[in-house]
Structures are given as C-alpha cells and as structure tokens.
Amino acid sequence: MFLAWREIRQNKLRFALVTAVLLLVSYLVFFLSGLASGLAGLNREAVDKWQADGIYLTAESDKSLNQSMMESDLVDEIEADETAVLTQTNLIADNGDVKSGVALFGIRPDEFIMPEPTEGEEFSEEFEVIASDSLKEEGFSVGDELELSGSDETLTIMGFTDEARFNAAPVLYMDLEDFEKVRPGASAMSTQETPGQPAEGGQGPAEEVEQPDMINAIVVKGGQPNDVPDDLEYIESEIFIENLPGYTEQNLTLTFMIYFLFAISAAVVAIFLYVLTVQKISMFGVMKAQGISSGYLSRSVIAQTFILAVIGVLIGFGATVLTGQFLPAAVPVSFDYGMMAVYGAVLIAVAVLGALVSVWTIVKIDPLEAISG
Amino acid sequence: MTEHVLQLEEVTKTFGSGRTEVRALKETSLEVKRGEVIAIIGPSGSGKSTLLTIAGGLQGPTEGEVRIAGERITELAEKDRSKVRLEHVGFILQSSNLVPFLTVSDQLKLLDKVKKGNMSKEERDGLLEELGITKLTKKYPNDLSGGERQRVAIAKALYSNPSLLLADEPTASLDSDRAFEVMKLLKSAAVKKNAATIVVTHDTRLTDYVDKVYKMVDGVLHLESEDGGAKPLEEGRTDFLEKGGNEDGI
Q1: Are residues A72 and A151 in the same domain?
Q2: Where would I find the ABC3 transporter permease C-terminal domain in this sequence (chain A) (predicted)?
C-alpha cells in the first residue's frame, strides 16, 4: 500500500484516467442494470404483487395468457390454498384528454389478487375500476370516465394502486362479472385477440349470462399442483413471467451487455496497467536488484488497481443514483441496490484480474537487465 | 566463522556457446573482508560489471562458487538470492536507482517496509547530514541534480546496513571534491559497520581511499596494489554511525 498510494498521489493524471475509465464503465453497468430491472418491473410488477406461486393456463396456450381460454368453474377442480380467476385483454383507454394502452384485468373482488387502492377506493358498482398509479403521471385521475377501444361502455376510475403494470401496460382491475361486456369482440371467443373490433349489437352479453364466465387463467397460492385438470397446465410464476412476450429477450440482451462490459473493463484495465508497468520495468528491475521481492511489487500493483477500482465504482454508483433522480418518469429505471452491489464487486474483481497481466510482467523482469541497461 | 563477507572461488562466466562463445570472466577468485574497501578498475567491456553482478548475486557464474555472508548463493533460486540481496547487499548503481515517485525520506522508508535492521533515526540523520542532503528529504528525484541523486542513492544503499556494498561508478556524476568526500564516507562507513565494499570505477584518483586495487583486463583480475595509497581516516567522520557488530551472525 505504501508504494501504491504514493505512486497514485505523485501521478494523479494517469491514475485519474484509469479511474475515469472504470467510472464510466461502472456507470454504464449500473445504469443498464437499473434499466434491466426497470424494464423487467414494467413487465412483471403486477404479477409480483400477487405473490402467487403459480398460474394455470390451458395446455394448448403454450404459456401465453391471451391464448388460454377456459371456463371459470374449472377453479373448483384446482387444489391450492388460494385461487383467483383472471381474465385479461389489452385495449386503449381514453379519458377525453389522454389515451393510453392498458391491460384490463377482470378479477373477483373477494380473491387474493384484488389490489388495495393506494388512493381512492375499491370498485363496487358496474364498470368501476382500480387503475395503476402509473396512469396518474399520464394525466388520469380518480373519477375519470374512460372510453374504451372496441367497446361502447365506459369505465370509471375509482382508485389507484401501486405496482400494477403488466407487460409494459398499466393495469385496470375490474370485476369479472362486467368484464365480458367490455371485452372487445366479446361475442366471439376466437376474435378476442383483435382489439379494435367492436362488439356486435350487444346481444353477446345477454346470452352469456347463463353460462360460466370465460377466463384466461387461474392464479394460485399455496398447495401443491399435484392433480392438474386435463387440458390445463401449471406454470410457476417465474416461468410465466419469463414467457411474457419479449421479456426474456429483453432481459438477455441487457444482461449480455452487462457481462460484455465486465470483459471490456478487465481488458481496458489490463492494457492500461500493462502500459504503466512496462514504463516502470527498469525501476522495478532496480528494486528487484535491491532485493525487494516480486511479491511485494505485485501486491503494490494489485493494491493500486483495487484502490482505483473502488474509487471508480463508488463514483460511478453515485453518478448513477444522482442521474436517476433527474430522469423523467418515462424512463423505466429502477435501481436494485443489491444487484448493483454485486455488479460493483464483480467490476472490482475483474479490474484486479486485469492487473494480473502486470503481475506476470513484474515477475518476469530480470533485475540484471535493469542494472546493466 | 569467517572474516570474509564475499568469497568468489574460481568463478567463470561464459556467454553464448560454440562460435559465439564469449568468456566474460576467466577463472577469478576474490575475497573481501569486513571493513575492507577494494576498487576494481579497468576498461569498459573488461568484465568488471559482470564480476560485480555475480558478486551481488544478480546472476550466477558459469562455474565456481560464490558466497555472500557465508551463504552459497550459487545454489539458490532467484527468490532466495533476492532475499540475500535484501539482507546483505547494498547497490550503488551508475544510473540512478531511485524510485521516481518517492521523496528522499520515503526512499528510505520503503526499505523499512521490506526489511528490518536498518539504521536508527539518529544514524539516518547523521548519514544524510554527512552526505549533505538533509534539506532534500521532502524532494522527489526529479527535483534533484545528478550529484544530489547519486548522494541519495548512496544514502539508500548504506541505510540498510549491508554487509556487502557494491558500487558501480558511484562518483560518476559528482565533482572531484564531492567524489573524494563520498569515497571517504564509503570507507569510514565500511570500517565502522564492518561491511565489505567493492567500487568499480574509471576514476584512478579514487584509489587513494581504498585498501586494495584490482585491475580487470579481458576477464582476468589482477591485484594491482595493496594498501597502496589508503589514506588514514580523518577522526570523527562517521561518529553518527553506531558500531556494527557481527549482526549477520557470520
């Protein structure tokens, strides 16, 4: 540490440059990790909030919520501590000023996925909804009447709830009983995937009153999925999330970028320190001639790298958090500090790894050459 | 138990092989006692530096035996030779052997970090005083003149209380007065600290201050003069030094 610190103090510029590189790389890593968890949250936070263990979809749906259609009385055949039926569709909600693409969830208010409103109150009458509070930032408020694409009905926002986004869309929770009346193309099951197509004449709802509700999925909590009904498939929550459209691809892309940055920072540090070490070969040679061991000199280089990496990563961390404060809400960044700590530690570790190239150089220095040179 | 800090027995050094073989050092034997200062003079390329580096354990001889402080270093691995150098050998090199990013006092402090048994604070201050570099302790090598740097290098070499001091042209960048001063200091430090000193030099004037002068020609070492011109030491030159005993246990 003695040599390491004094050299840093005496050569501030060159070590500031190494630190700056580490700072920028760590800034980028932290930011990407924030973006990764932010984007992931955008997709999954509604599902996470349920704290469900798993979800039943039809086997033929291939883990796609939209493609899974079943009758709601199937819920009686499912063994679990708690169950909740779920139906979902995507549509556009318009309060007169703003339009927003939303995910409309039809649920039963007495089941466990029913959200607690953080503002306003629960839905109780027909066509009332609890909305994701992310809609507030877009200009929606309690009491708004929402016109829907593909339906003549209007919904009223009774309250907002937090952590309610699904597959990048804000969620509107409403009672399953009314859901069928607003589902686009409600009369024809096969066309429920084409939003924008208006329901025909409204005779659909009238006919379906006698039949069990059609739902997309049954969400469960507790119990073992031992006896899965025919035609259904049990999917753990995590697997269900990974199969949301685009989720895995997006996550892998960002993770890949982060891993690549680790490799880049190892290489950059290795090159930088190697150049610095090569410049000091004769100095190291003289010191080795005096009997100062390679081990001592190597430890000094490692200590130096460690100091620089810690400083760089800490500043990078601070800069990331600071930037996060000033970002517009539209940027989906959320910082997972535990994950960032891990990434920071990995960055420091790969920087030290990069210094090993210099250690090897030092070990190879022949003091004799330094002296006779 | 031997009086000799350095013993070279029939040491040879050959570089290359076959047609390109160069015998840098022909069978050479040399013994240097505690408190003894010898000079090796000779033209460049005569093998002086090769001899010095072998004596310092920086390279092994092709044949023969080298003992530093009684330890047969010919058989040691580089790691262990490095330890022997650290414990017993002080180098004063032609080119500055200072660490550019350490102040003069930190140069000495570095030795405290890697080894024990260095000079006490009082001895250190006396040494710096004697070398005329007391005021330079907070300066970096780049801020010093060539002569100042060389004096710091000498201080660094003496600071570790070596039993063998190897100096390659130690006075090269010093003016005559300062050169004589330095030689006197080396001599009296060697006597006081019971160290053996080898000085490789071109400067024949300096041989006035040494016990023996050897001449190196074409890899052969001749004894030129013995106790020829060694001037008596002035009294009180190195009073700051504590008398060194047989701290190496040899």
Answers
A1: yes
A2: 256-367
Q: H or E stretch including A219?
A: strand A217-221
Would B238 be classed as within a structural domain? no
pLDDT of residue B214: 92
Predicted-complex ipTM score: 0.85
Count: domains in chain A: 2
The helix, strand and coil proportions of chain B, stated in percent and rounded to the nearest 5, come to 35, 25, 40
The kind and range of the H/E element at A50 are helix A12-50
Instruction: For residue B241, tell me if it sits in a domain.
Output: no
Q: What is the pLDDT of residues A224-254, one digit of tens each?
A: 777 788 889 999 999 999 999 889 999 999 9
Give the one of A3, A291, A292 whose C-beta lies nearest to B89's C-beta: A291
Is A201 found in the same domain as A90?
yes
Distance CA A161, CA A307 (A): 45
Q: State the pLDDT confidence band at A192, using cuts at 50, 70 and 90.
A: very low
List, for residues B43-75, the tens digit of each pLDDT value.
888 888 889 989 999 888 999 999 998 889 888
Note down the domain range covering B149.
37-46+78-226
Domain count, chain B: 1
Cα(A206)–Cα(A210) distance, integer angstroms: 8
- Within this chain, do residues A112 and A257 fall inside the same structural domain, yes or no? no
Q: Is residue A233 part of a domain?
A: no
> Measured between alpha carbons, how far is B220 from B226 in angstroms, rounded to an integer?
18
- Is B236 a member of any domain? no
Domain assignment present for B67? no
Q: How far apart are the first and last CA of chain A?
A: 28
Start-end of H helices in A175-293:
176-182, 203-208, 237-242, 247-279, 281-289
pTM of the model: 0.79
Confidence label for B237 from pLDDT (cuts 50, 70 and 90)? low
Question: For residue A177, is pLDDT > 70?
Answer: yes
Average pLDDT of A331-341?
90
* Calpha distance A15→A111 (Å, rounded): 60
Whether residue A8 lies inside any domain: the answer is: yes
Is residue B180 predicted with pLDDT exceeding 60? yes
Residue A143 lies in a domain: yes
Residues of the domain holding A192 = 54-222
Facing residue for A283 by CB, picked from B79, B87, B99 = B99
CB distance A2–B109 less than 8 Å?
yes
Asked if B140 lies within 8 A of A10 by C-beta distance, the reply is yes
Q: Is the pLDDT of residue A157 over 70?
A: yes
Please tell me whether residues A139 and A212 are part of one structural domain. Answer: yes
Residue B60 to chain A, least CA–CA distance (Å):
11
Taking contacts as CB-CB distances below 8 angstroms, the residues of chain B near A290 are: 85-86, 89-91, 97
Query: Are residue A212 and residue A98 in the same domain, yes or no?
Result: yes
